Structure formats: C-alpha cells, structure tokens
C-alpha cells in the first residue's frame, strides 16, 4: 500500500486503486488520490472504477475457457469454420489456439470506432483483414483483433451477445457486480478518465492501434458501453483481485459456487507458445497460455509483470498504463491495481515489478 501511494503523494499519478485477496476474500483494499469522474475532479474512492485496458483479456478469455469446458469449442478448430466472414485473404487456416496465443498473424488488423459498435461492422472488418505474417511463425501482440474474434466465437457458439455471456457465465457466479465488459451508461460518472502525466508516447513493440489517441478515446461513454473485449473492461482493483480468486482456488468461490472445473483452469493456463515466440522488445519467451501470461521458472517472471516473488504458476494479464491483475495458485494471493495516470513506460514497468513483488511477499 505504501508503494502504491508513493507516486500519488509525489504527484506523478493522479490516483491509484490497489487490492490484494486470498482464500476467496479481500485481504486489503486502498484507494488514493483524485480522479476526473463524470467530468468533475473528485477524490477517488472504493466506488471509483477504471478502464482496465488489456486486463480485460483475462476476463473474456475465461469465458472462452468455459466454452471449451462445456464442449462448445476446440482449440484445433479453424476460426474461419466458425466465422465464415473471417475466412478470407489467407486467414482460412488460422486456428482457435493461434488466436488465443497472439500467433495468428493478424496483429495489425484494423478495427475501431465506429465499426466495432455493431456486429455487422465487425464482421465487415473481418472480411477485409489480411495477414501480417504466416500464422504460428512468430508472436506479436494482437492488441484488440484476436479478442474481437474470440467475442464473435462466443456469440456463434452460445447464441448470446458476448457481453451477456461473460456476465452470466463468469462474472455473476463470481459475484463481481462492479466488473464490466460493456458498462451500463448509468455508471459512467463513477469511471476515472485516463490522463497522460507527460507527453503522450506510443508504446514500443508493435502494439498497432494502442496509440495515445486510442487510449484517450476510452474516456468516451460509447467506448465504455461497447465493451471492447481486448481492452475496454471497467472495474476497480478489488474486483480484479477477486476475479482471480476462483481461478487459483480450483474454480470455486469462497461461498462454494463452482465457476469452472479445476481441470479446465489447469488446461487453460499451460504455456502453449514455443521458445521462439519471444517478446519483441526484451527478447524473452513470451509464455502465453490461453491468452493469459504465465510467470514461468526461467528468471524472467518480473519481465512478464509478476515481480520477483510469485511462483512459476502465477498467471494473469496486465493492462496499458500499468494496470496489474494476476493470481498465484501456489500462495493463493491475487492482486489488482488500477490507475488513471499514464507515465513513462520505464517508470510504469518499475512500479509493476515493485508492487507485484511486494504482493507476492505478503505471506512472508
């Protein structure tokens, strides 16, 4: 908590929300600073919510894991067989597994507002997408494209809007009432607007559409409502920490509700990328399971956003701006961290490692 508060007290971040959980319950939750909420600068509180950016991927992916558990999806299926509109321009052979792992070859496929507001607009975009490289041949982060595909797979296989399915199959059983993929309009005044605390700098590493303009665009009500499955989730730190609790406790909540089978979680959190699928900036193996990142035992866990004190089995998914969300099956600890302030990526990275390392030591 002291480390999370430090940058707020120093003025380098406007606000921060941090929570840690174990045994299915919150162990601690703190919120610091002030945030623009509903157009007004107000103190950030436990009711303040944040755009969690790519931490959303872990939530939508868990819903897709449920499809596998329920016999509605296989990893070896071709995406184009499920979504015929996708089977164009060389994309016909891409598998579901490759889409999960960000090795499908379409990381720069363009899809943004207003096309992503409607299913018709999204499908039209799928038809036009082309490969950037041969599927499976390399890793490159698919910032939003792969998860729009996963969202459409959910809709094809369930007959439900993907946002409704995520709510019904995952979030409601976890009792996460304040975690949203597709936020109700009435809650907009509770969401902290993103702010750059210095000159906006596009991220390195070929993140495509993750530009300062796109980041700032997430402040718009319509972006929050549409529920961009790769980066538009809305939550606070407590909800993120609690999301990972059932996933690191055999799929069961503290109240005894089974969300998912333990075998499904074990299957979904096995590293499936190859040694040659490497981080384009730092060069280490990327360690992707079914969308989530796994800490690993090669000494590179901190570079993957897990700090220095988690077990090799810890898994989760960070978000742009320094959002933290992971759980560790060995210690039972999970953490959520949210902020509305974007700072220099090096400073952000140091913060992520420090907070994750301290969280992992909470049983010491």
Q: Overview of this structure, please?
A:
With 364 residues, this protein is of the alpha+beta class. Helix content is 31%, strand content 14%. A seven-stranded antiparallel beta sheet has the order 3-2-1-10-9-8-7, with helices on both faces. Strands 4-6 form a two-stranded antiparallel sheet. Helix 2 packs parallel to helix 6 (145-158) and helix 2 (56-69) crosses helix 7 (162-171).
Give the structure's gist in a few sentences:
The protein is built from twelve helices and eleven strands.
Q: Helix count, per DSSP?
A: 12
Major pleated sheet: 7 strands, antiparallel
Q: How many strands appear in the DSSP assignment?
A: 11
Record the strand order, biggest sheet: 3-2-1-10-9-8-7
Explain the layout of strands and helices.
Layout: H1 2-10, E1 15-22, E2 25-37, E3 40-43, E4 50-53, H2 56-69, H3 79-82, H4 96-101, H5 119-128, H6 145-158, H7 162-171, E5 195-196, H8 212-217, H9 221-226, E6 233-235, H10 237-248, H11 262-268, E7 293-294, E8 315-316, E9 324-327, E10 334-339, E11 341-342, H12 345-360
Parallel strand pairs: 5-11
Antiparallel strand pairs: 1-2, 1-10, 2-3, 4-6, 7-8, 8-9, 9-10
Helix pairs in contact: 2-6, 2-7
Features of the shown structure:
364 residues; alpha+beta; seven-stranded antiparallel beta sheet; two-stranded antiparallel ribbon; 11 strands; globular
């Amino acid at each position: 908590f002291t480390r999370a508060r430090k940058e707020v007290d120093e003025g380098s971040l406007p606000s921060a929300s941090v929570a840690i959980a174990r045994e299915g319950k919150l162990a601690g939750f703190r919120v610091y600073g002030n945030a623009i909420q509903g157009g007004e600068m107000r103190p950030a509180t436990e009711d303040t919510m944040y755009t969690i950016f790519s931490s959303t991927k872990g939530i939508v992916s868990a819903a897709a894991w449920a499809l596998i558990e329920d016999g509605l999806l296989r990893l070896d299926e071709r995406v184009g067989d499920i979504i015929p509109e996708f089977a164009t321009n060389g994309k016909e052979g891409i598998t579901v597994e490759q889409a999960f792992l960000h090795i499908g070859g379409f990381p720069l496929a363009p899809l943004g507002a207003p096309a992503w507001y409607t299913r018709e607009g999204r499908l039209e975009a799928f038809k036009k997408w082309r490969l950037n490289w041969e599927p499976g041949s390399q890793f490159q982060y698919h910032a939003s494209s792969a998860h729009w595909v996963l969202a459409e797979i959910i809709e094809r296989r369930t007959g439900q809007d993907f946002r409704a399915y995520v709510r019904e199959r995952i979030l409601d059983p976890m009792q996460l009432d304040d975690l949203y993929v597709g936020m109700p309009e009435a809650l907009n005044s509770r969401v902290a607007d993103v702010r750059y605390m210095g000159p906006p700098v596009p991220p390195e590493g070929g993140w495509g559409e993750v530009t300062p303009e796109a980041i700032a665009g997430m402040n718009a009500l319509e972006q929050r409502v549409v529920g961009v499955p790769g980066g538009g989730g809305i939550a606070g730190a407590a909800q993120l920490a609690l999301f990972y609790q059932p996933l690191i406790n055999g799929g069961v909540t503290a109240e005894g509700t089974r969300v998912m089978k333990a075998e499904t979680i074990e299957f979904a959190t096995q590293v499936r990328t190859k040694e040659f699928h490497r981080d384009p900036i730092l060069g280490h193996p990327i360690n992707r399971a079914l969308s989530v990142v796994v800490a690993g035992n090669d000494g590179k866990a901190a570079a993957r956003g897990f700090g220095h004190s988690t077990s090799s089995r810890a898994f989760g998914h960070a978000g742009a701006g320094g959002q933290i969300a992971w759980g560790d099956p060995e210690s039972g600890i999970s953490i959520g961290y949210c902020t509305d302030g974007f700072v220099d990526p090096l400073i952000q990275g140091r913060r992520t490692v420090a907070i994750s390392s301290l969280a992992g030591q909470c049983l010491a």
